[in-house]
């Protein structure tokens, strides 16, 4: 399966800055640890606005802090 | 409606057909066993029998006036036509019995093959989900099998019948086994249409599998 996008998810660095574990984040935003892991490892194809809102609420960040489009 | 098992109708049909095939196989085994011990005279399995008849499609014998029935068999304004000519042989050789049985054997192979492949599709779909790669691939195999058999079955039947008739016909008729093959009326339409439907559904399943991946990886 090839990646057809250049979006990088900075979930690991945000979690490290907030001193939060992935399990704790998954619990607080109401997704499974498996899905949180998919998101953290950059294997997700898409992210729902509701999930993005919940992550930003918990991590007190903006979508731009979480997602980045890499240079070509 | 949404809660119903989408595979249930096909699964039920395949189970019933499979049960009939198993029953037929058991019955055939019993008949063959009795025949081997000489206790089933006149028994017939496919065209393995003491008296075998095959209908010719490429050849039609004309019936002379002497052979015409004394009384008309059809009402005035209607006519009676024979669709073909039957070649019958008493105590045929094994080769002739095999030749006459080819059509029935190919039809049985089509039924059994389609049934087994459909069972594999159903099992894979129940295990992995309908819109996944494995059932899609198996459905594709089923489609190609049906399409291939739609052409192989009639050709094989005609070759078998041609060989039987060439063996049964007197030399004066100059019947070659190829004559029956050249009179092929076309493919067997039912498996052909079902095969194309299976191939189309397989492509839908592949497309569905890709969408399923997208859904699974949407967080």
Automatic annotation (TrEMBL), chain A:
GO terms for molecular function: DNA binding. Residues 11-66 form the HTH cro/C1-type domain. Transmembrane segments: none annotated. This is Putative transcriptional regulator. InterPro entries: Cro/C1-type_HTH, Lambda_DNA-bd_dom_sf. Pfam families: HTH_26. It comes from Nocardioides albus. PROSITE patterns: HTH_CROC1.
UniProtKB/TrEMBL annotation, chain B:
Keywords: Membrane, Transmembrane, Transmembrane helix. Pfam families: DUF2975. The chain crosses the membrane at residues 12-37, 98-122, 142-169, 189-206. This is DUF2975 domain-containing protein.
């Amino acid at each position: 399966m090839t990646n057809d996008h250049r979006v990088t998810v900075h979930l690991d660095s945000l979690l490290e800055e907030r001193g939060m574990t992935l399990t704790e984040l998954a619990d607080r935003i109401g997704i499974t640890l498996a899905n949180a892991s998919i998101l953290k490892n950059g294997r997700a194809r898409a992210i729902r606005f509701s999930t993005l809102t919940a992550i930003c609420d918990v991590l007190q960040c903006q979508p731009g802090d979480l997602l980045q489009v890499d240079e070509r | 409606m949404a809660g119903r098992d989408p595979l249930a109708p096909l699964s039920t049909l395949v189970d019933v057909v499979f049960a009939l095939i198993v029953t037929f196989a058991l019955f055939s085994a019993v008949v063959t066993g009795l025949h081997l011990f000489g206790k089933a005279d006149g028994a017939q399995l496919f065209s393995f029998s003491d008296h075998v008849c095959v209908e010719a499609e490429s050849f039609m014998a004309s019936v002379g006036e002497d052979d015409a029935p004394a009384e008309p068999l059809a009402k005035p304004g209607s006519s009676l036509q024979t669709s073909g000519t039957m070649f019958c042989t008493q105590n045929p050789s094994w080769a002739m019995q095999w030749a006459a049985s080819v059509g029935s054997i190919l039809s049985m192979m089509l039924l059994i093959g389609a049934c087994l492949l459909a069972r594999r599709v159903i099992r894979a779909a129940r295990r992995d989900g309908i819109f996944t790669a494995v059932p899609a691939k198996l459905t594709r195999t089923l489609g190609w099998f049906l399409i291939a058999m739609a052409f192989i079955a009639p050709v094989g039947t005609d070759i078998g019948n041609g060989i039987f008739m060439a063996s049964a016909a007197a030399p004066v008729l100059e019947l070659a086994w190829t004559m029956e093959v050249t009179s092929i009326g076309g493919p067997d339409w039912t498996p052909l249409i079902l095969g194309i439907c299976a191939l189309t559904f397989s492509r839908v399943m592949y497309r569905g599998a890709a969408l399923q991946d997208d859904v699974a990886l949407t967080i």
